[in-house]
Q: What sequence folds into this?
């Protein structure tokens, strides 16, 4: 007879990790109270901490930088195409 794999919601995982980080209970106590393996909670904690910086990532700033770079490139290409040949240093007659 095979065991069914349990799936835990992100909310459940984060609640347990936050409880662990508060330090009021140790890892084994929290795992036992919630009927999970301590190593599973340890893995959730590691993943939580590894991805914590994503919360502070400002994608708006990255998008604005990309947009500005694209506009500068387009402006430079337009200037090259529209600049009269006689301004090219007298090389074109």
A:
């Amino acid at each position: 007879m095979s065991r069914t794999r349990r799936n835990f919601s992100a909310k459940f995982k984060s609640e347990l990790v936050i409880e662990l980080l508060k330090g009021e209970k140790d890892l084994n106590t929290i795992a036992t109270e919630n009927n999970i393996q301590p190593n599973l909670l340890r893995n959730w904690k590691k993943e939580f901490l590894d991805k914590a910086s994503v919360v502070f990532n400002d994608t708006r700033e990255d998008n604005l930088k990309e947009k500005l770079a694209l506009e500068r490139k387009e402006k430079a290409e337009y200037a090259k195409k529209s600049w009269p040949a006689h301004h090219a240093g007298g090389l074109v007659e």
The mean pLDDT is 86.
